[in-house]
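Note on ligand handling. Small-molecule inputs were canonicalized before submission; formal charges were left as drawn, and no protonation-state enumeration was performed. Where a ligand contained multiple stereocentres, the stereochemistry in the source SMILES was retained. For S-adenosylmethionine, this procedure yielded the string shown in the input block below.
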Amino acid sequence: MKPNIKSRTVFLGDNIDFLRGINSACVDLIYADPPFNKKKQFTAPIGSEAEGASFSDYFGAEDIKDEWVEELRQENHELHSLLIGVNAMGNSYNYCYLVYMAIRLIECHRVLKSTGSFYLHCDPTMSHYLKLLLDCIFGGKQFQNEFIWYYGGGGAGKNRWGWKHDVLLFFTKSANWTFNMDAVRVPHKWSQGQLRADGSQRSLEKGKIADDVFVRHGVMPWSKERTGYPTQKPLALLERIISASSNPGDFVLDPFCGCVTTCIAAERLERNWVGIDVAREAWKQIEQRLEKDVPSDLLRGEANFSRTPPQRGKQDARAKKYVYVISNPAYPGIYKVGVATNAEARLASYQTADPKRRYQLEFKILTAEYKTLEPHIHRKFDGDHEWVPGKLADIIAAMKTYQAPA
Ligand SMILES: C[S@@+](CC[C@H](N)C(=O)[O-])C[C@H]1O[C@@H](n2cnc3c(N)ncnc32)[C@H](O)[C@@H]1O
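Structure output:
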């Protein structure tokens, strides 16, 4: 699909509204650096460029909507089951954070091109849970790396090892993706300024293959790029990711852009870019940083600012899914009625829970009205969340004759 977003735009607002408006399969690279669930408020220091900027990293029931959970239940069975499992562990804050993330990660996956790459920046607070979410959304096979950013400072303690690194989970949408290894080779220690025995200089192309640990200080108080925006990431980290995982002219999206580090790095590397942030300070930063951190010969015009979500093309907005009916002779007179993009894959996921593999796909219907059809059948036959009691023929007839409300 063609992008329905204009490059060099910073959207102000909750990213879920903007992500849902972006056309499917139109973005080449997403770098997402969300709150990490640290259970605290981050605030820019007084007197810094970003003074006044602050964001909450504390998640509770007020941050999630029932309709999101319902949507996950209907459309992403595996993910929903995983979240129910997390909730059963008894930490409702983790559950709320993960629901909040899941609903956004699904949209990130949708807007990526089939050749696209996704980096989720997090830390060990939640990285192991987020990896499971991404395995459900992208498929475990699409996991490429756990990329470690070792920043060195902070995190020291007397009773445990110092916390010195962040985790970036790198997934691709398919088995075919961009990776420009030559753009990110690391010089051999001995290569800089050293001569071979024959007197010739060792060149960078003899540089070694970049590995999954990036050693670099965070943005220091004396650093030129420092804005004071809380949790600002170094440009060098973003330049590394963008150089490796995209090409000039590609579209880069950062749905949690903060003080727009990704946008600046993308601008410097001549990529198209869009950033989204709920904090108004992100807007203030972009103009200043475009002037300060982008060489003037590269600056390609003004940035755009918008509070209005893009509108997806009609065809894209009305994507179809299957509403299915699955039976199991062990449970006579009740049927699973649910929604799936792939009804056979859903059947296979049920089979794994039944050693005798007796689940059977009785009926499926591909429809754009799946969001209303499935709850309609549950209400009509008085079903609870998954199982619908009734005669199979009646349930199928009701599905075939369903008319969506105008
Ligand atoms: C870890 S910071 C990102 C820092 C950024 N990478 C940088 O270098 O400045 C997380 C950002 O996510 C933003 N944020 C949190 N929830 C959001 C949401 N639902 N929609 C958009 N932005 C959100 C916060 O305002 C904050 O700026």
